[in-house]
Design goal:
Strand content: 5-15%
Radius of gyration: 24 Å
Number of helices: 13
Helix content: 40-55%
Order of helices and strands: HEHHEEEEHEEEHHHHHHEHHEH
Largest sheet: 2 strands, antiparallel
Bound molecules: iron/sulfur cluster
Oligomer: single chain
């Protein structure tokens, strides 16, 4: 028996927490209320910006690098770690903590979060958490619910300000994040992975570049033959030159086409003809040499 033991709530603290959230935590809907406020006057101000694991989505990276006025490559180098774990099917990007005693977030300043208007999804969501019932027929896209997280040191829960879930999410500007999150799931929860597919190192690199290193991906789009090979609306091409959101939308479409064979891109007719021509030539060449069609040719 070579199979590694599966993580279960009994053996894995993370699985245990997930299990508790699904079975014990009160589920909140859009109109449920809770009390919370976070501001410089709370005694715990900034204490939660230390020693935390914050996974960044492609949209988080886009917003953060733009807020800081640096390229995606610079942002990834300076502010992130790329954990390598055997069970990760797609690349992950984690916000770097400083190498000091308290492991403060590299984006924290004396006045608070240095990127507040563009802080990442998990920082916006707290104290709400979002969970989904995994064992629904469509997996993690099944029933979703919010729940309240209560970190012991967080005094925000003692404040008198009350919110409905809906108002809190609006106030935090979650709509755009949710929209991009859903689009990203089209990649990370793709049937290819559900069927046990594994990306080659080369494809993983492409995934990482297109999703997270957008400025490098832009160079690839505009300096390779990509746009000559596919039909892409000219206005959209112009948009991609200077608009990161347009480029990220294109990146997701490109990955769905190139990694999973979805018809999200249309090769130009002349490229298809040339491709067909080369197939025909291969067939002719094979016949001339007396090798069956489809067999490898030199
Ligand atoms: S990004 Fe901002 S809010 Fe989030 S942990 Fe860092 S300093 Fe805190
Ligand atoms: S611990 Fe809670 S109240 Fe204190 S800064 Fe963090 S989120 Fe705000």
């Amino acid at each position: 028996m070579s199979d590694a033991p599966r993580a279960t709530p009994a053996t894995d603290p993370r699985a245990k927490l997930q299990d508790r959230i699904l079975t014990e935590y009160p589920r909140l809907g859009p109109d449920d209320r809770f009390s919370f406020a976070c501001h410089p006057g709370v005694s715990c101000f900034n204490r939660c910006c230390r020693d935390v694991n914050i996974f960044l989505s492609p949209y988080d990276v886009l917003r953060l690098k733009r807020r800081l006025g640096i390229t995606s490559g610079e942002f990834l180098d300076r502010y992130t770690l790329l954990p390598v774990q055997k069970d990760l099917r797609t690349p992950a990007v984690v916000l770097r903590m400083n190498d000091d005693a308290e492991k403060t977030c590299a984006l924290l300043t004396e006045k608070g979060c240095g990127v507040y208007p563009d802080r990442p999804w998990p920082c916006r969501m707290y104290p709400l958490g979002l969970a989904a019932q995994k064992d629904t027929p469509d997996g993690w896209r099944g029933e979703r619910f919010y729940f309240l997280q209560r970190d012991e040191e967080c005094k925000g829960h003692e404040e008198s300000r009350t919110w409905t879930v809906r108002d809190f999410l609006d106030d935090q500007g979650m709509d755009a994040y949710d929209e991009w999150g859903e689009a990203f799931k089209e990649l990370t929860l793709h049937q290819f992975f559900e069927d046990g597919g594994i990306l080659s190192p080369q494809k993983l690199h492409m995934f990482f570049t297109a999703c997270y290193d957008l400025d490098r991906f832009r160079t690839f789009v505009f300096e390779s033959t990509l746009l000559q090979r596919f039909e892409v609306d000219e206005d959209f091409v112009d948009e991609m030159r200077c608009d990161d959101e347009a480029l990220l939308r294109f990146a997701f479409l490109w990955l769905r086409y190139s990694l999973f064979g979805e018809p999200t891109m249309r090769p130009r007719a002349e490229v298809l003809e040339a491709f067909q021509g080369s197939l025909d030539k291969r067939a002719l060449f094979s016949q001339a040499r007396g090798t069956p069609q489809g067999e490898a040719t030199p």
